Amino acid sequence: MHEKTIAQLSASLATGEFSSEELTRALLERVERFNPSLNAFITVTAESALAQARAADERRRQGAAGLLTGIPIAHKDIFCTDGVRTSCGSRILDRFIAPYNATVVERLNAAGAVMLGKTNMDEFAMGSSNETSFYGPVRNPWDLDAVPGGSSGGSAAAVAARLTPGATGTDTGGSIRQPAALCGITGIKPTYGRVSRWGMIAYASSLDQGGPMARTAEDCALLLGAMAGFDLRDSTSVDRPAPDYAALLDQPLTGLKIGLPKEYFGEGLDSAVARVVEDAIAEYRKLGAETVEISLPNSHLAIPAYYVVAPAECSSNLARFDGVRYGHRCENPKDLLDLYTRSRGEGFGAEVQRRILVGTFALSAGYYDAYYLKAQQIRRLISDDFRQAFAQVDVIMGPTSPTVAFNLGEKVDDPITMYLSDIYTIAVNLAGLPGLSLPVGFVGQRPVGLQVIGDYFTEDRLLNVAHRYQQVTDWHQRAPTAFA
Amino acid sequence: MMEWETVIGLEIHAQLATQSKIFSGAATAYGAEPNTQACAIDLGMPGVLPVLNREVVRMATMLGLAIDAQIARRSVFARKNYFYPDLPKGYQISQYELPIVQKGQLTIDLEDGSSKVIGVTRAHLEEDAGKSLHEDFHGLSGIDLNRAGTPLLEIVSEPDLRSAKEAVAYMKKLHQLVVYLGICDGNMQEGSFRCDANVSVRRKGDPQFGTRAEIKNLNSFRFVERAIDFEIERQIELIESGGKVVQETRLYDPDQGETRSMRSKEEANDYRYFPDPDLLPLALDEAFIEAARVALPELPEVKKQRFMTQYELSGYDASVLTASRDLADYYEATVAALGGEPKLCANWVMGDFSAFLNKENRDLADSPVSAVRLAGLLRRIQDRTISGKIAKEVFEALWASEGDADAIIEKRGLRQITDTSAIEKVIDDVIAANPEQLAQYRAGKDKLFGFFVGQVMKLSKGKANPQQVNDLLMEKLQGRNDLLA
User: Fold this and answer.
1) For a surface tag, which of A2, A125, A343, B116 has the fewest beta carbons within 10 Å of its beta carbon?
2) Which of A89, A113, A86 is nearest to A100 (CA)?
């Protein structure tokens, strides 16, 4: 069963080939067997998963099943889940049981999905390798010495290893797309505002966006269809109905205009990765698409701008973790300052502390104009670049990440090199655009992802573009041998 | 002393009278058990998001319109970052660079009868913090987050005020206005209307402002006046003795009647303001502003002028009656129920009625005497069924909820005696019973007239029509005099 995609599982459940309870049990067994080597899950909710599965089977008996009813999924541990630990990969929330469900969780529950558990992640989604998690690094199913990418590394690894057919992720600077690429799966970061952020623990509020991760674009379409939509509880969510993504997958690509930004194929891009990406683009030409070189001249400003905006927002967003109302509190604080400094010092890991400090500095009196305001101006320049590009082309393509998965520990002491791992994904968040990564080949054992970027609210087009490619290629069907 | 000039600016926090909080659906009612009115948003739980309460925006807009201010078509919520245990998110959401209300003004009345226009720099929306409780926890602190997220409108004046009295006049005027508008309950004891005062002094004629001190959290008009007066004295003495005022935050201690340093500017927080990415800029369209304008009640000043022309009241009476919207409404309802006699109504509403409310420390809303009942009483004065004096007795019975005026008059037999022969009979009895006084009166002791009036009223249990008693008594006493002569 585990080799099937969500669409296939949905069909099997519908025909009664197996029940959701059987499917859930089988996947929970795989989780139990493989998670010790992968560390993809922080919390496994076996009991409630089986209860949800039985409820889904009952719903099916009553003839009220939808496409996702009874489909097991996993949630990134950044989404609040009522009554279940929601750690955000941090010691400071190690014992935090969320008192409510995130909108994403609520909507997938309502669709009948079964939650297997909560997946590992970089602490507070700050990282590109899943090595900043308090719960230890996740390993890449394609090569256990390699990182899965981050911050949604647990979700990506769990999907790639067939422990779950789909999972939720969040993407602030590439945290869905980069791990999807490094683990050889498909993931989409929707337009900012497409998916509600209610109950999604904030890292950088103006950039964070939740989205699905699965093996195929079709599965992502099914999941996104359930996740997307307006939410009164999130003032930045957009009041605009979500289309039926699954129904729009098959549009032909004839005449599709693909822009290839020269900045995404230059210095810093691994040449082997470049070749795989170029092959994929050639495949698109065969599908009837045209390609045209474009320029996104402010691309080089994306990383510096991101590392001002995101830390600035995080320095404020993470102020609530103060040891007063919930979360980790130090032993025997001698006064208020001691309570704050030790609780936070003990509760947050090094990367989180680094970003809080950077952000606090960037917002300080006398520096605000030079950093935060400047970074916001750069965001506008970057958005303008994309606007001009989309006047000429339908989608933009390039590598998702400049390299394949690197080894555990390889970049952990060199934050700047680590940050470059997101060089092609970050601009998309700064502009608020949708972006998708799909598997298009390998360099050695390790997968390569192709990033497809679209104009605002063109998730349907991105999924369609990825789906058509997956109809004529089989990269998305490859499974890591140890987990096949 | 004469060479010093005081410069004062006030920052007034008015708690907006909404049912729910500014960014959550939790209730705002005062006095609930600690932490029973704080939802996940107010607690700053992970993953929660603020959603702006529309009513708060409407109320701020109404204030802006009432003080002739500019209503910003686009305003921005920012985060003011600082750590404090009763600040759950580690930041307060407030408007910083672009407030909703900008550049208004308020005219205050001074004691000498003149008036003065005070500039209002801005009014911005923000959320209140919770409360730290340091008693009853044996060296620990308790935190009550019921107040966290309560909507506040911070109204900032220009440094146009020149004395503690002016400051109080401004604060009172603004208090009257927000209560009139129905956007604040004005309850100062519960902290619904409180004030920070920025005070500095300079030598008269000096174009530069002196260094200011900010006195925090003044929650009564009296404290504002005393705190400012103390602070003025302190600053002048300090400068005259060669010292320098430092920019700092001070607290007023009402028990000692003095202000004390809380923290200096050097220790001040860097709040690291930045636009809140969880809230989009607030955009107001003309229709929204127009709807708020239409909903504005008649403002105090306009109402006062109307009372003076429509009811021919003096400026003083009109001021007193329009001091609150409730009182003005009550007055107008009384006049309407009576169908006229605005001066009689004014006397009673300002007189006995207000006195009874004050005596029992009641709100007008809890008054046991409705405007219709009061008018019922006044009608009987008007048609001479009872005298003004008896009316006071009837009013007391009305207050004690013994029924309407007619029932009380009937039950107690208070109907005024206007029958001339009946009054004459009483007068005759009084004259017959007091031959000595009669002789003295006749001998020229005119003052005894009052004695006879008193005796007649006493014997008639106050019911004899006083005017008739006067006339008849005069006639009878004088008539005899004439005969004797």
Assistant:
1) B116
2) A86
Q: Assess whether the previous peptide bond of A129 is cis (omega < 30° from 0).
A: no
3-state SS class at A72: strand
Dist CA A369 CA A63 (whole Å): 59
Nearest in space to B23 (alpha carbons), one of B83, B73, B95, B85: B95
Whole-number average pLDDT of chain B:
92
Q: Is A151 a catalytic residue?
A: yes
- The answer to whether the beta carbons of residues B51 and A235 sit under 8 Å apart is yes
A218, A432 contact by CB (below 8 A)? no
Identity of the residue numbered A298:
N
User: In the predicted model, what is the mean pLDDT of residues B433-437?
Assistant: 87
Where are the CATH 1.10.10.410 domain residues in chain B?
A: 420-484
Instruction: Give residue A366's region: left, alpha or beta (phi > 0; psi -120 to 50).
Output: left
Domains in chain A: boundaries: 6-258+393-483
pLDDT band, very low/low/confident/very high, at A338 (cuts 50, 70, 90): very high
Say whether residue A286 is in contact with chain B using an 8 A CB cutoff: no
Q: Is the pLDDT score of B482 beyond 60?
A: no
Distance CA A320, CA B84 (A): 10
Q: Residue B31 pLDDT > 90, yes or no?
A: no
Measured in degrees and rounded to the nearest 5, phi and psi for residue B154 equal: -95, 120
Domain covering B420-484 assigned CATH 3.30.450.20 in the classification: no
Distance, CA of A359 to CA of A345 (rounded, Å) = 16
Closest-CA distance, A108 to chain B, in angstroms, reads 17
Q: What pLDDT, on a 0 to 100 scale, did the predictor assign at position B484?
A: 45
Distance CA A156, CA A41 (A): 11
Residue B483: the pLDDT is: 46
Number of other CB atoms surrounding residue B261 within 10 Å: 11
In this predicted structure, the answer to whether residue B2 has a pLDDT above a threshold of 60 is: no
**Domain made up of A6-258+393-483: CATH architecture:** Alpha-Beta Complex (3.90)
Active site residue A175: yes
Q: Assess whether pLDDT exceeds 90 at residue B481.
A: no
Mark whether A299 is an active-site residue.
no
- A372 vs B44, B83, B274: nearest CB: B274
State the average pLDDT over residues A133-141: 98
Specify the DSSP element, H or E, that contains A430. Answer: helix A426-431
For position B267, what pLDDT does the model report? 65
pLDDT in tens, A29-38: 999 999 999 9
Please say whether the beta carbons of B324 and B332 come within 8 A: no
CA B437 from centre of chain: 53
- The per-residue pLDDT for B166 is 97
> How far off is chain B from A158, nearest CA to CA, in Å?
24
**C-alpha separations of B239 from A137, A199, B200, B247 in Å:** 65, 56, 11, 14
- The amino acid sitting at B243 is G
Average pLDDT over residues A459-464: 98
